[in-house]
Amino acid sequence: MPAPRKSRRHKAIRICAAGIAAVAACTGFVGVSSAAPRPLSLNLETATIEQLHGLLAAKSLSAVTLSQLYLQRIGDLNSQGPSLNAVRVINPDWKAEAERVDSLRAHHVDLGPMMGIPVLVKDNVSVKGLPTPAGSVALADSYPSDDAPVIKQLKAAGAVILGKANLAEFAYYTTTGAPNGYSSLGGQVLNPYDAALNPGGSSSGSGAAMAVGMAAGTVGSDTGGSILQPASNMSDIGLRPTVGLLSRSGVVPISGTNDTTGPITHTVWDAAAMLTAMTTGVDPGDPATNSAGQYDHTDYTKALSSTALQRTRLGYVAPAAPDPLYDAALQALRDRGATLVQVNLTAANLPTRVWDYEFKKDLNAYLSKLPASDKVRSLADVIAYNKSHANVALKFGETLLEASQAINVDDPATAANYEQLRAAGLAEAQSRIDTTLKDNQISAIVFAGTSGNTIVTRAAYPAIMVRAGYQDGTRHPEGLEMIGTAYSEATLLPYAYDYEQATHLWQAPSVNNPTLFRCVGAQSTRSASCPP
User: Fold this and answer.
1) pTM for the full model?
2) Which residue numbers are catalytic?
3) What is the 3-state secondary structure (H, E, C) of 376-426?
4) Which domains does the chain possess?
5) d(Cα 341, Cα 338) in Å, to the nearest integer?
6) pLDDT tens string for the chain (532 positions)?
7) Strand pairing partners for 23?
8) Which residues are within 8 A (CB) of 248 and not within 5 positions of it... i.e. 6 or more apart?
9) Which of 8, 122, 171, 222 could be a cystine partner for 202, CB 3.0 to 4.6 Å?
């Protein structure tokens, strides 16, 4: 059984109760000013990648200054003010990355729209020099030796990695009894639209950080809706790409069949820009990418159009209950020129999913590739560590870990059954979507909220979540989901963009839920109505 460990590297800056302004005091790190000047009239809560790219390209703003401003905003919101707990660690190399980008720009190098853009990354995606614990105390000191390919792509495009976002532990594959957004290492992420509202899982930290503008863009991961649900619940744009379009190497896995990473942003244009930068082409370490090489150099921003919906045929699935926001969204699509056809598409009676089998197999493979100094090398080690540290590790149990561990992945009959179920599940989910598209002569299918998550994720197909609006009374966000066939991102993104341009529904959290943000920044004014 692994013994309790002392952290062997402390380069990552942990978010402490005092916030970013006091980081120097609690970690010895310097370089973040608590009084960083706010240039122009920039509102980080609503700033977009497209807007910031223009300012950076015009040299009205440097990557260093922009990163400082976002770090200060993290300090104001993450463990102070509303204390959203969306960000877990800060990248100590942020300034060096930002200075490199500023130097390249000074020498007239243009890396594209992500150049100088600060990004937060879900804490199950490897960033060199930072731990990648996936929310687990058992992996708190797990330092992969290299960046994940999607991170290499972002850095090559000039993005500045600010740090890591909190998440549901093991991407919500520890137990079924925990709330979304909870991990034994990072605690509970809060939804800025209503602190009592489910933030969605498991990319909850990425979604919450994006909603309030703690970064210009965030990276999430999605197996069964873990980008799409936070985007719907926190009024973000969330893009789940086709499995294989982006490499999963260096990402703590659940399912080799259904896992993917993807962007969470403020706008569809921003999602297209991030997807363009993250696309990895063929990765020898991830066989799912073998069929994606032709999309390697696609610039998804080029296809965006405010007339994309004209003369298109879209399917829509009727909601289970009356939904005025969905009805209004469908009408907006019609007003934009789309013909809507009601279709029947359900995930009912799909073959049993194979995640328990794949989680053990894929997690063991991931852990085996970590540096030799990492002591937790298998799912069995994780379970043993949790049991020996049950007070912190097992608040909600580990039923999913234990169910997966109980499977003998080396048994030929078990392996054969897995292969049969995997193939049947993929084929059936894909057939239902593709047949619906073909039989109705439609190019995408629309769902209310997250009701399309199960069918599209089981098919390993792409989906984008946009805003449908906010519910009367509660003001809770609701999303509109568009799904398509394999590698149809260049179709879905223009549809989503056209809809977004027509509706302009976004309400920032501080507008929608002002009480939660009433005391943000109050530490500088010492308002008598705010806590000390």
Assistant:
1) 0.94
2) 122, 202, 226
3) CCCHHHHHHHHHHCHHHHCCCCCHHHHHHHCCCCCCHHHHHHHHHHHHHHH
4) 13-525 (3.90.1300.10)
5) 10
6) 444 444 444 445 555 433 333 333 332 222 333 444 555 679 999 999 999 999 999 999 999 999 999 999 999 999 999 999 999 999 999 999 999 999 999 999 999 999 999 999 999 999 999 999 999 999 999 999 999 999 999 999 999 999 999 999 999 999 998 999 999 999 999 999 999 999 999 999 999 999 999 999 999 999 999 999 999 999 999 999 999 999 999 999 999 999 999 999 999 999 999 999 999 899 999 999 998 888 888 999 999 999 999 999 999 999 999 999 999 999 999 999 999 999 999 999 999 999 999 999 999 999 999 999 899 999 999 999 999 999 999 999 999 999 999 999 999 999 999 999 999 999 999 999 999 999 999 999 999 999 999 999 999 999 999 999 999 999 999 999 999 999 999 999 999 999 999 999 999 999 999 999 998 865 445 466 787 7
7) none
8) 256, 259, 260, 261, 286, 288
9) 171
What number of residues does the chain have?
A: 532
Q: Judge if the upstream peptide bond of residue 126 is cis by omega within 30 degrees of 0.
A: no
Find how far residue 228's CA is from the centre of its chain.
9
**Are 313 and 319 contacting, i.e. CB atoms less than 8 angstroms apart?**
no
